[in-house]
# Entry
Amino acid sequence: MSPFAPTQTRRYQYIEIRHVSSSPSGKTHIWDVINRSGGHALGVIVYRPGWRQYVFEPDEATEYSSGCLDDISAFMKEAKP
# Structure
Protein backbone atom coordinates (compact mmCIF):
# COMPACT_ATOMS: atom_id res chain seq x y z
CA MET A 1 0.00 0.00 0.00
CA SER A 2 1.19 3.51 -0.78
CA PRO A 3 2.77 5.38 2.17
CA PHE A 4 0.78 8.49 1.20
CA ALA A 5 -2.76 9.20 2.30
CA PRO A 6 -4.96 9.33 -0.81
CA THR A 7 -5.93 12.94 -0.14
CA GLN A 8 -2.39 14.07 0.52
CA THR A 9 -0.67 16.68 -1.62
CA ARG A 10 3.12 16.54 -1.82
CA ARG A 11 4.78 19.92 -2.36
CA TYR A 12 8.23 20.32 -3.85
CA GLN A 13 10.14 23.44 -4.85
CA TYR A 14 8.65 23.80 -8.34
CA ILE A 15 5.89 21.20 -8.52
CA GLU A 16 3.20 19.66 -6.40
CA ILE A 17 1.66 16.24 -6.74
CA ARG A 18 -2.05 15.99 -5.94
CA HIS A 19 -4.20 12.92 -5.51
CA VAL A 20 -6.90 12.71 -8.20
CA SER A 21 -8.62 9.40 -7.54
CA SER A 22 -8.18 5.75 -6.76
CA SER A 23 -7.99 3.19 -9.52
CA PRO A 24 -11.14 1.14 -10.22
CA SER A 25 -9.69 -1.68 -8.09
CA GLY A 26 -8.89 0.73 -5.25
CA LYS A 27 -5.38 -0.73 -4.95
CA THR A 28 -3.52 2.13 -6.63
CA HIS A 29 -3.96 5.87 -7.14
CA ILE A 30 -3.84 8.52 -9.84
CA TRP A 31 -1.90 11.71 -9.15
CA ASP A 32 -1.70 15.06 -11.00
CA VAL A 33 1.66 16.79 -11.34
CA ILE A 34 1.15 20.57 -11.20
CA ASN A 35 3.49 23.53 -11.78
CA ARG A 36 3.46 25.48 -8.50
CA SER A 37 4.14 28.90 -9.99
CA GLY A 38 1.30 28.87 -12.51
CA GLY A 39 -0.90 25.98 -11.46
CA HIS A 40 -0.57 24.34 -14.87
CA ALA A 41 -0.99 20.58 -15.25
CA LEU A 42 2.25 18.89 -16.31
CA GLY A 43 1.07 15.27 -16.44
CA VAL A 44 -0.16 12.39 -14.33
CA ILE A 45 1.39 9.59 -12.32
CA VAL A 46 -0.44 6.27 -12.71
CA TYR A 47 0.27 2.65 -11.86
CA ARG A 48 1.02 0.37 -14.81
CA PRO A 49 0.66 -3.35 -14.02
CA GLY A 50 2.90 -4.36 -16.93
CA TRP A 51 5.71 -2.31 -15.41
CA ARG A 52 4.68 -3.19 -11.85
CA GLN A 53 5.29 0.37 -10.80
CA TYR A 54 4.05 3.93 -11.06
CA VAL A 55 4.93 5.83 -14.25
CA PHE A 56 4.82 9.50 -15.18
CA GLU A 57 2.79 10.42 -18.26
CA PRO A 58 3.75 13.99 -19.22
CA ASP A 59 1.33 16.30 -20.97
CA GLU A 60 2.21 17.36 -24.49
CA ALA A 61 4.60 20.31 -24.94
CA THR A 62 5.90 20.37 -21.37
CA GLU A 63 9.50 20.79 -20.26
CA TYR A 64 11.28 19.65 -17.10
CA SER A 65 14.45 20.54 -15.30
CA SER A 66 16.51 17.80 -13.69
CA GLY A 67 15.23 18.98 -10.30
CA CYS A 68 11.60 18.50 -11.35
CA LEU A 69 12.39 15.05 -12.70
CA ASP A 70 14.20 14.16 -9.48
CA ASP A 71 11.11 15.17 -7.47
CA ILE A 72 8.79 13.14 -9.70
CA SER A 73 11.13 10.14 -9.52
CA ALA A 74 11.40 10.34 -5.73
CA PHE A 75 7.64 10.43 -5.41
CA MET A 76 7.16 7.41 -7.67
CA LYS A 77 9.75 5.41 -5.74
CA GLU A 78 7.90 6.09 -2.48
CA ALA A 79 4.39 5.56 -3.90
CA LYS A 80 4.48 1.80 -4.14
CA PRO A 81 1.10 0.01 -4.35
Q: What stands out?
A: The mean pLDDT is 88. Residues 14 and 81 are 25 Å apart (CA to CA). The chain has one domain: 9-78. The first strand starts at residue 9 and ends at 11.
